[in-house]
Structure formats: C-alpha cells, structure tokens
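Residues determine shape. We examine one folded chain.
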Amino acid sequence: MKIRKAMLASPFLLLASGGLAQNAPKPETTISYRPPADPAASWSSYDRTKAGPLFAEATIEGRRAAVMVDTGVTFTTLDLGWIKQFSNGAEAQPTLRVAATGGTTSAALGPVVELSLPSYDVHRLQTLAADFSGIKSALSRPVDMALGMNVIGAGSLELDLGAGHWRFAPTGIRWPQAATARLLYTPDRYHSYIVIDIEGHVLRLGVDTGYDGGLMLTKNAATITGLFDRNPTTTVASAGLGGIAISTLAVPTKMKFGVSELSNIPTEIEADGGLPTQWKLDGLIGIDLLRQLHAVLDFPASTFFYLPSTEVSQAPDRATIGIQSERKDGAWRIIHVMANSPAAGAGWKSGERICAVSRVERNKTIPQGTNTTWGVSSPGTKLKFKMCDGSIRRLTARNFY
C-alpha cells in the first residue's frame, strides 16, 4: 500500500505501508462469492477526477465501515482506533514487523471478524491491526480496514476506473478481445505481480491499488527502460509508516506498456530500499496507470487482462511551486522541497511553516484559504506567502518537470 495524496501544496506526498514480515499470521477464512441479483449492483463507484485508492461499502461485525481495497497489502488489516471503539476499549499490542516506505514499523494481531463486501461474504477473517491515523489524515476520510490479498486474491478484480467504477468478480473471466499478461505471486506468496513489456524490456511489476501514483521502478529498471533519460525530473517525498523516503519523479509523455501506449504516467525511481526492492521486483504499478486501462486481475487464473480505456485520459496535475506540505495546527508545515522547483531555487527548506497564502493578480492580493490547490497553480501565477515567523516570501509558478 502506498498512498499518494494531494493533502499537500503539491499533490505528491506519499504515505505507505508494505508487505508484512515472515512471522505474520496466515489467516484461515471462508470466502463466499455472492453475485447480486442485478449485475449493475456489483459495481462500486470511483471518482475518476482524482487518482485515489479504491473504497468499498462494507460491514464489519454488522457495522458499516470504510474499507480500502489494496492489492499491495498481504493480510487484511484493521485500524487500531476501530478496534478500540468496538471492543470495549481493548487495545491490540504490536508484535509484528511491517515492511514500509522509509523503513519498518509495527503491527499487531487483530480480532477475528465477519466481513460483508459487495459480492463477497467473509467468515472468520483473522485480521492484523495498525495505526491508520496518518492514512486517514492524508485522505481526509475514514479508513477502518485495508482489505488485503488474503481476501482479494480469492477471485478477480475488474477495474474500469476511467469509466468511474470497479468490482469484485469470480475467477474464470473470458475476455478474448483483451491483451493478457501473466499474473503471478512472489515465492512467499505475499505479493502479486505481472510480467509485462515496458519500453521493450520485460519487467516484473507489482500491482498495488493502494498506490495512487503511476509507475515506480528500481534504479536498474529505470536505467534499462530509458524513461528518465529523455524527460525532466524532480524529487518527491514519500512519508511512510516507516519514515520519509525521497524518490526521483518524471512524467513521460508516452510510454509503451505491453501492447498499449499510455501517456503522462507519473513515473518514479524508488528511494533506496523501496518497496520494489523489498519485494524483489522491478517496480510497482498504481492507480494513476490503471486509470488508463480497462483491466481484470484474475488472481486464481494467473492472468492480467487489459485494454486501453475508452475514456479520454486526463493528464495528472503537476506541482508548479515545488512545496510538499501538510496542513497542521492552522498552518502548512513543509515536508519536502522538490528539486528544480521555484521553491528550491529560492532556498526554501523542509520544516518551515506557512501561515497564509495569497495569489497576486493585477495588484490585488487574493487569499487562498486552507485548500492546497495553490501548489498546482497555472504557470506564471504569482503567489505571496506569509511565513509563521512573520516574514513574507513570493514565488512564481512554473513547470519544472
């Protein structure tokens, strides 16, 4: 799981958790596929205007819950806050190690629960437990559960995100019009990946619906594909459960993906020791790439089906100021200053705090409120920043990657 969220002045702060360590439990569950009477009811909606994770309407122990559907998570995990709220104040004690962006962190053995999802009933699901406070803050919405591959992998996952929906489906999909790639598991069966040609080179890429970036590559994969040789680059901070990591980012205008050609896919070179390296893969594909496809991941059949989406792909928002920040205590605290950006050129530093932002237009100062859209202002926009130390700074937005 790796969440890219525009909670920042730039839309490129990432918050991530990854696969679980070898001593994680292997839950024993009963998963029953329950097709709805109306096939249209099997689809869950997706906001195609932004590259966010998948969410399903669900009930946990009969209570409505916000469930994030995340193929980058091995074992289904509950929020510690949800457990405490509905278990008479009991708290799970962290006993497991979790591999995550920026390092490792702790998880706990969670309760055994009954789970009802669109098209699935899950009986006696052993869960893990982790602190989701950072995830909830990044997404500005509740997250009670991260549904992992121990449930998702029982069948198929159909993604038609460009059309604004997705669904769970049974295995055995027949789609002769679609191109296919092998969909396999790592030897420990903790992570799924596809084997596909990228720019003329066959790569093993994890499929992570909790990662709302486009494509992340190891340094070696980035080198052989040449994607970073012909595109301007910057840096991006990944704030994970294990800490902060910095990766290199480019947005290639065109990219060969299997038999398809995709456009404007945000592409990263992982930070040292990133999730692809931890998972012993060449990279990860995320939501921003999957949005350009109509795809089916049939896990039991080891097949990835895909066609280019029939919907027009919208180019992702690009940062034009270069400040990644989080809104906290009435101010923006700078997490990272992106390389080659206006902010970097002016010597801005992480840790500094911005108390107010205004747009300067025709000699008028227009307050920007508490939203973060100023970070993706149109090139040429002049911005005035009131720092929390009382100083005033000015920057002009421009394209820099």
